[in-house]
Specification:
Layout: H1 3-15, H2 22-29, H3 33-45, H4 58-67, H5 69-72, E1 80-86, E2 103-106, E3 112-116, H6 124-130, H7 132-146, H8 149-163
Parallel strand pairs: 2-3
Antiparallel strand pairs: 1-2, 1-3
Helix pairs in contact: 1-3, 1-7, 2-3, 4-8, 6-7, 7-8
Length: 164
């Protein structure tokens, strides 16, 4: 697995239909079509995407996000930068959690300052700004990567609601 595999799977879930196509998916994520194709192959091999189908194995993905993502793709908050809010600094967690800490994906056109969290893929900030559902899924995933126990518990609850 590579970090972009999670981004691709979350985008498929955000799209919400089984008749998605690779080319529009690649364009929406700022990836090449071959990157998306390789990502889908890895996800099939890992059991996160059904073979010969376009269906994400939602329970397997949730299990991986809950128990594995913090270990496989860990992240430590970095320097203060301008960017786009993520983790508990973004919706839906920001409505529940009050914190002095703010985490952001570094992005020159961003409107917030906070500690840098390197996104799962370089094009994540732009892709997230184009798709509110994807943005929420990625922010919740980042909360699992960098959050404390409370943030992780709230994040997994919210992911279960959104992923199903």
């Amino acid at each position: 697995m590579k970090p972009q595999d999670i981004v691709v799977l979350l985008k498929i879930i955000a799209v919400g239909k089984e008749n998605w196509q690779q080319k529009p998916l690649a364009e929406a994520l700022g990836m090449s079509q071959s990157e998306v194709s390789h990502s889908l192959s890895r996800s099939q091999y890992a059991g996160l995407l059904l073979n010969k189908s376009k269906q994400v194995m939602k329970s397997a993905l949730l299990e991986f996000l809950q128990y594995g993502i913090a270990y496989v793709f860990p992240q430590q908050p970095g320097a203060l930068v301008r960017g786009i809010a993520t983790a508990h600094a973004a919706s839906p967690l920001k409505e529940t959690i009050s914190s002095n800490e703010s985490f952001v994906w570094p992005y020159a056109k961003g409107n917030q300052r906070g500690q840098a969290i390197i996104p799962l893929y370089p094009s994540v900030p732009e892709a997230a700004l184009k798709d509110a559902k994807l943005y929420e899924l990625l922010a919740l995933t980042d909360a699992l990567r960098v959050g404390k126990v409370r943030e992780k518990l709230l994040s997994i609850e919210e992911l279960k609601k959104r992923i199903g």
